[in-house]
# Entry
Amino acid sequence: MIAEYWKQRSLDQKVLILFILTLLFRAFFSLNIGLIDDEAYHWSWAKDLQLSYFDHPGMIAWLEAITTSIFGDNQLGVRLPGFLCFTAMIVLLYKLTKQLFDQWAAIFVGFVMLWSPFWGFGGYVASPEPVFALCWVAAAYVFWQGVREDKHQWSVKKTWLWLGVLMGLGLNSKFIIALLAPGFGLYLLATPNRRKDLLTPWPWVGFLIATVLCTPIFWWNHIHDWPGFRYQFHDRHSGETFKPGRWGGWFAAQLLFCTPFLYVMIALAFITSLLKRKEARWRFLFCLTVPSIAVFYPQPFFADYKPHWSGAAYTLLLMGAGYIWSQGLKWGQKQIVKARSKVFTYGILGFFIPLALITYTPFAYPWIPKAFKFFAPNAKWETTYDPSNEFTGWEELGEFANRRQREIHAETGHRPFLAALRYETTAQTTWGTKAKIYMLNSTVSNYTVMQSVEEMKNMEGQDALIVTTEKYDKDPMEYAKFDGCTRDKLMTFRHGVHARTFWLYLCKNFQGITYGPNEQPPSARR
# Structure
């Protein structure tokens, strides 16, 4: 009966059914696993609303403030904005791919977005990325409507007014969206009949709208002595020497995140967009992606990097990769890729299927430690070997820390303050305890930026309860001045298997954070 029903459905109906089923699976998964470190970090921003933040602008915190106020501080409240933005982004990208190429290319793009390690798994995370990605794809979609060469073309006015709003919203999500702007200009300059658009007021009105919408970012940075701009545009891109080996590590990460076969198709799409730039659709892909490629591909030679920074460009190039998979690829008389090539199809599936199984199944049952013992019976198992453990234990830790704080208060008459040593642990402890957690570290994060000199000075003389984990187990005496510390141990379990080890240090008489000779509290710069 099901088989007969399936045969009677059109291709559009089949795609819609599979899309809905996949979204239901993603929703179920999102609601039944704990938060990762960055999710807890961004959630904690929503509990202290600002115009912007040290690491990123404020859009993700503003959205989560709305959803958590409605649904509570739980997985639904935290992850709903990212889920909705990721879903809308896939729908828009699917539609744009159909306009540029064909439906099978769009199906390819949708499948990769939902199930790849790079996009599919990353799409679960409540972070600035899903919001930014929606704005990135929406801006590309709107720009194409303004430059497409058919009767559906939008007016210059409508195009640039929408682009002004989308770029402004995108900049309040993540600064990388600014790299679309030179792509727009490059396309207009490379297209003779579109150069006149630059002589109209509308691109400049759009620029003005985006600038006005960015006012919260500039104002927050101004009142805090520009920490976000200094970090994003200087500190994280400097201070390193030329290292080819680091670039090799970055390239290996690209192959891992995209998987080798898909990465080759993305690379072929970029090269094809250059070779076929006389075609509007390929010129569109080239112009909108080349600024990001030009910035982020050399970056690892000279400074530290994040593997996903080039992902925005890959998202658009994925449309070209879908077309290559759907229709094949010829350069001159040479057949580079056959239409729906079995090599690439099975190659991509050969990575996606086992990676999906390895990624999802440990959350249902902790089988990785048992597999480890089977293959290496004499080796020592560490809980950090199972990445799914990192999503667990924080609620138990929160109950433990809150209880110890109350007990110490009852015993001594003094309430110790709660603290952690890294931003990740600070964020997760905030999530577990739902209390104020101080970060005792000279490394700058949004927590240290918002901890004023006066506030930290007022903490001196008090005792502290400091959380560490087996992943980041450090002696608090290395980070702050105390008379001494003792610690308690908390172990958590999943299905009877040891999953996490937490340490709760009781440190006496806080006397300030330890700073190096060239360091100072971020708030001291104000």
Observations:
- The beta strands are 329-331, 334-337, 417-420, 438-439, 464-469, 484-494, 497-508.
- The CA atoms of residues 371 and 377 lie 9 Å apart.
- The longest helix spans residues 75-100.
